[in-house]
Amino acid sequence: MKIRKANVYNGNDLITNVYLYENKKQEYSMIAIPELEWSTTVQYEEDREMLKSRLIQSLSKRASANTSDELAGKMIHWVGEM
Fold first, then answer.
1. CB burial of residue 8 (10 Å; 0-12, 13-18, 19+)
2. Which DSSP string do the residues of 19-42 spell out, in sequence order?
3. Which run of H or E residues covers position 13?
4. Each residue's pLDDT tens digit, 21-63
5. Dmax of the chain from CA atoms?
6. Percent helix, strand, coil in the chain (nearest 5)?
7. pTM value?
């Protein structure tokens, strides 16, 4: 498991830790943001544009639009590094 520092504001709250877990055998990553009580899985073969859209849509239920967009961009970058 890896922990990345997002340092993104959602209103007055600072979202700091984003947890990333990679399951190489089953070819997916899990992303969790406890401060938002949010998590999802990302399949290796998932299209990046579709992924960004899905992440923004899911995050927007718990965060502002700007925060969702910024977090989605960072998460796509981090998952791509793994």
1. buried
2. EEEEETTTTEEEEEEGGGTEEEEE
3. strand 13-23
4. 999 999 999 999 999 999 999 999 999 999 999 999 999 999 9
5. 39
6. 40, 40, 20
7. 0.91
